[in-house]
Structure formats: C-alpha cells, structure tokens
C-alpha cells in the first residue's frame, strides 16, 4: 500500500507525468475494450466492408477525442491561446509546444486500437474475404445454391453450415490474417522508425535554448493555473467561515465587547491571523468578482520582485552598553 | 506550502472526487445490472417492440433520476434557487452552472447503459425482427404461402432460439440486426464524445472570465453551507457545555468556588481558559430565541458577501499591544479607518 502511494505521489508530482499516466491508462482501456467487444461480422457481401472499416475507424476517433478531453494541457493551451494580452505578452512557441504535446499523447490510444485490430486479424478477414480469389484454395463448397461472392462473404462466420467438414474457411482466414498481421507490423515498424529519426534529427534543426525556455514556461503556466485554483478554493473556505461567524455575531441585539486575547495565551487568534493572511485583503463580493475578471482579461506580468524582496522585520537586541546580544540580520 | 496542498487535496477530494466516485460507481452498477439482467424477449408481434425499446430507454431514465437523488448538490441548488433575496443578490448564471454540472455527472450511467445495450444487440433484435426481409438470409421457401399475420408471427419468433426451427436463417438474421445495433452504438458513443469535446475544449473560446466567476461562487455556496453546519454544531456543543456548567454552578454554587480556591491558581487558569474559549465559541448567541432567529434568518435573509474591515483591524492592533498599550497608541487606533495601518513593534526587555 505504501509503495502504491509513493508511486501515485510520484506521478502526481509532475504535471507531465500525470498526462503520461492518463495516456497509458487510455491505451490500456482501448485494448480492454477491443477484447471485450463482441465483433459480429454480418457475413453479407454488401455490409462486410462497411462494418469492418467502421469498427476500425470510429473507435480511434472516439479515443482521440477522449485523449484530448482528459488532458490537462488542453485547457492550459486554450486559455493561453484565447486570453487577451493584458500585462503579459503572448508567446506563440509555448502554445505550439503545448499543442504538439497534447496531440502526441492523444494519438497513442487510437494507434494502439488500430494496431491491435490489425494484429488480431478478425476485422481484416471480415472486410477482405470477398476480395480473395477462391481458386487459390481447394475445397470450395459448391453444392449450395449460392454464388461465389456470397460464399466468400460467409468465410468470417465460423458457425455457418456450409463450411462444416471443410478446411476451405480456415485456409482463407489464415491467408487474410497473414496479410493483416504484415500490415500491422509494418505500421508499427514505420512508427518506431519515425520516432527514432525524430529524436535523433531534432537537435540538428531546433534551437535547444529556445526549447528549454518554451518547456519551462509551458510547465509554469500549468502550475500557475493549478495554484490559482488552489488559492481560490482556500480563499472561498476562509471567506465562508468569516461570513458565517459575522452573521452569527450580527444577530445579537446587545453589543458585546469582545476582549482581545493576547497572542501568547490563546492559539485562536493565531489561527485567525493565518486565515486573514489567506484572505489577502479580498473581503467583498465585488472585489472577488473584479479579481476573477482581471485574472482573465489582464493577467499579471511575470515579475515577482515586489513580493520576493519584501522587507522582513529583523530584530536586534542590544544591551544598554550598545553590545549586540542577538541579531536577525 | 505542503500543509496547504494537503488541505486543498482534502477539500477537493471531499467535494469533486466524492461526486466523481459516486458517478463511477453508478456507471459500474449500470454495466453490472445489464449483465445480470436476464433479457427474455416475449417473441410475440404485439409486445416485441415495446419490450425491446422499453429496455433501451427506461433504465437510463431511472439511472438519470437516481443520479440526481444521490447528488448532494441538488439540495444546494434548490436552496439557492428558492431562497428570498435578502441582502445578497441572486445570480442566475451560478444556478445554471450548478445545474449543468449535476446533469453532466448524472448522464454518464444512462449513456453507459444505452451503449452496452446497443453493443450487445439483443434489444434491437427483439424490437426489429418483424421488420426483416427474410428472403435475404437464405433458403426461405417455407414462408411462401403464409398469410401476412402468420409471417409476422414467425418473424417475431426469431429472437427466441428454441422457438424458431430454421437455425441458419435465424443466425444470419441475428447477425444482421446485431451489426446494425452495434453500428448505432458506436455512432451514439461518437456523438456523445464529440459533444463533450465541444463543450470542454471549445468553451474556453467564449466565456472564460464569466466561467471563472461562476465556478468560484458555486463552490463558495457549497462550502459556506458546510461551514454553517460546522459552526452550528460547534455552537450547539459550546451552548450545551456552558448551559450545563451554569446549571451545576447554580445548584452548588458555593461548593464549586470553594473547590476552585483550594486547588490553586493553575486549575482555575485552565478551567477559566476553557470556559472562556467556550464562551467565545458561543459568538454572543446565548438564548434559544436568539439561536432560532439565527437559523430562521439564514434562509430568509442571507448576509451580503462583504466582510467588515474594522473587525479585523481592531484585532490586529490589539494583538500586537494588548489592551494596556492601546491608550499609548490611541491616536493610531483612532485614525485606523482613514490612514493606512501602521505596524508598531514594542521591544520588551528584561534588563
């Protein structure tokens, strides 16, 4: 259990790791869906190809949309692309980087579906059994009243009566499956070569320094959005608590003098001070609305000098003779 | 920062992950129910269609309503909708946002039921077997010479394995209808995914600023309600404690004070501190009528979303100096509302 928690924590620590994790989960879901899907070839000449190609192309499209939906980078990218300029200039390289990262991740599950389909072969057999020349195989069942096309269309269906005691069906299936697997392996090889070439050749064409900057700022945008959401949640909680307490206190008719507690006796006021700090001075509905509006229309510039170099009170203790007893400096 | 992160995760996990968890459980329950349900087509021309389509449509409606019932936010939404305006204006966009998010979550289990039903094909087979053109599927010489009603009655028996004798035709027809049913299922899934994609990926193009606002305030409403319940619970506890304390004191007043003097100052300090913090927690509400008024007004006249600054300023300055020094810094305190707050540090030396 501890190890699982550690693994989860590791994945959650980095936003890229989360996206990778989700991408892999989606690929596994696509494999599971394929194995649990009851593929049902109609075995009719007009519908075979339509059905098979449908099953081979529609689920990848669905997985692609799902991959785009569950990826956090989609929201970050759309935000960065659509926002007004405000105080912060826009960097199109960051948007491009986020878009390509999102696209690569979203394409994994569809590719896995297509490859599994081809390597398994059922769908190819259903689609292309009519195109096979029956003369290549012996044992064509010619005692039924059906024409050749109909017989070939029935090849994917195992339980059909015309193929009893005949090895014709198995021979044709094996032939088409062999083609299907060859296509599948070639596609896999092609993708791997493409990926390897991309990795090897990319440093020759791109400016690595600019790439480092782009990667940093896209990660920054993601973290910034997460932290903004976190801060909003914490702020809402403190706002709510104070609002409720204020409401209770307003109900009393007599004005009670609240004796303040010195901070070294009661820890209640310490908590209060912490909470006030979390409110950051935003205490009214209009202020909060303005803050949220401004967050979208005029994002702040990327400059935290003011708060990073805020003067800190330093205490220096001196005895009457001027000797320093203790100093924070 | 770590503490904040943990707290944030806890807060979020309480609200959204909980609802997502319920949503996931209902989806699994719907898939499990479908596989456990024994589908038995009546195989009669009058009832086939009703049974087949009914099984496709009615359980999703049931799951959708169950999703509303199990979602806590429904009562929050209803309360926000029906409350009198009081000193806080009502924002219809927040109501719409809450309604949309509840609906989105409730739609997942029904969508899963519909897609599983369509992928399985049995309900389509039951509903549409009488519309088949049986000549397409093989040697159909046995239907020649049958009247229309007899033909329809025969076709209605296709979904039932043991009632229809000509197996190859039955298998071919089953395969055909199942193929159409699966095609419908995939198209349904594609449409749902595409709609979800449009809503989530394209929406930021249009209303992002307003969306941030409604998201914040709807979360605020939910958490305010929780805070109110918490505060009421704490208040009730402190109320009860003080009430019982007072009762005991009234019954045996002299015995208590005698006991306290004898056991020394520390005890009284602690007891006094506890009692003082309990009194603080009462927030000034000490009578039943007052508490009733609090609870009544919480619904009929919700407070405005504006925290008072002077309450916090007063506490800040008194925290630093204590009541004794307030006179010394009196002029700063007196101008606390007009001028900016000035920080004072006082050094205490034992020398």
UniProtKB/TrEMBL annotation, chain A:
It is found in: Membrane. It comes from the Eukaryota. Keywords: Ion channel, Ion transport, Membrane, Transmembrane, Transmembrane helix, Transport. The keyword Ion transport applies. The chain crosses the membrane at residues 21-37, 49-70, 106-130, 182-201. One of its GO terms (biological process) is ATP export. InterPro entries: CALHM. It is a multi-pass membrane protein. GO terms for molecular function: monoatomic cation channel activity. One of its GO terms (cellular component) is plasma membrane. Belongs to the CALHM family. This is Calcium homeostasis modulator 3.
From TrEMBL, chain B:
Coiled coil: none annotated. One of its GO terms (biological process) is ATP export. The keyword Cytoplasm does not apply. GO terms for cellular component: plasma membrane. Its main location: membrane. It comes from the Eukaryota. The chain crosses the membrane at residues 21-37, 49-70, 183-202. It is a multi-pass membrane protein. InterPro entries: CALHM (IPR029569). Keywords: Ion channel, Ion transport, Membrane, Transmembrane, Transmembrane helix, Transport. It is found in: Membrane. Residues 259-279 are annotated as: Disordered. One of its GO terms (molecular function) is monoatomic cation channel activity. Belongs to the CALHM family. PANTHER family: CALCIUM HOMEOSTASIS MODULATOR PROTEIN, CALCIUM HOMEOSTASIS MODULATOR PROTEIN 1. This is Calcium homeostasis modulator 1. It comes from Poecilia latipinna. The lineage of its organism: Eukaryota, Metazoa, Chordata, Craniata, Vertebrata.
